[in-house]
Design goal:
Helix content: 25-40%
Shape: globular
Structural class: alpha/beta
Number of strands: 12
Number of helices: 9
Strand order of the largest sheet: 6-7-8-3-9-10
Strand content: 25-35%
Length: 259
């Protein structure tokens, strides 16, 4: 079943040139789709449109229903957002941060009850970070914050997760840990669309890849989409895409020979 279907999606900030122009793609249930593109390509803008930001044209359907027809509460039951890790404006505990996700589908000004508290605790347990519950979010490491933000999305109980560079600024170990947890969620039936700057992660983890450039998009299997020619055009660097002995692929930068 299709989790999200996008047709002819375009967006421009007031007075500016189009950032997105006529995008067509879909995300199927249970897929891990990577969103790649250089800085300024519109990855975050696209995620905001998929979360209901006003001003786009075209159609976005979530589980068959037009996005514009969904109330904020109804949308919160279907789609959860994981932002880039960073500072919280308030020094909440990790559990309170996760509880905010559980409370997202509630009526305005409603307080979370036992069911929401149970959802928050279960999300922390699922990611193996229950021990962080009482810690202050601002005191956590980057990897711990990333996992708390994912737990917040899980507590919301939406099955489609939109992630804006969930492993950004993490060290090597924490990045692998976060990617591993995301992979587990996909295997458990969650659907993920995540913005990333790392084509190697996409080659290793993605079911499909969506590349944004010049306001337009191309989507397909990782090995078909991530090519040396396309990466050079996108990022202005010389790379080759090599196949390792175990069958995996990786991007290898090189200096082209001088004429």
């Amino acid at each position: 079943m299709t989790a999200m279907e996008v047709k002819k999606l375009s967006f421009a900030y007031r007075g500016g040139a189009p950032v997105l122009s006529g995008l067509d793609f879909s995300v199927e249930e249970g897929e891990n789709v990577y969103l790649l593109g250089p800085n300024g390509a519109g990855k975050t803008t696209l995620l905001r449109c998929l979360l209901g930001q006003r001003g786009y044209t075209g159609s976005v359907r979530v589980a068959g229903d037009e996005l514009r027809s969904l109330s904020p509460r109804a949308l919160a039951r279907r789609v959860a957002y994981i932002p880039q890790t960073g500072e919280s404006a308030f020094d909440y505990s990790a559990r309170d941060m996760v509880l905010m996700g559980a409370a997202a589908p509630l009526r305005w000004l409603s307080s979370p009850g036992q069911a929401e508290e149970r959802s928050a605790d279960e999300a922390l347990e699922r990611l193996g970070i229950a021990g962080l519950a009482g810690r202050r979010f601002q005191q956590l490491s980057g990897g711990e914050r990333a996992l708390v933000l994912i737990a917040r999305a899980l507590a919301q109980q939406a099955k489609l997760l939109l992630m804006d560079e969930p492993a950004a600024s993490l060290d090597f170990g924490n990045r692998l840990r976060v990617m591993d947890e995301i992979g587990k969620l996909v295997s458990q039936g969650y659907t993920v669309l995540q913005a990333s700057h790392d084509p190697d992660d996409a080659l290793r983890c993605a079911d499909r890849v969506l590349i944004l450039a010049g306001g337009r998009a191309v989507c397909g299997a990782p090995r078909e989409i991530i090519t040396a020619e396309r990466l050079e055009a996108l990022y202005g660097v010389a790379v080759s895409v090599e196949t390792l002995p175990d069958g995996r692929a990786m991007c290898v930068p090189y200096s082209p020979p001088t004429p």
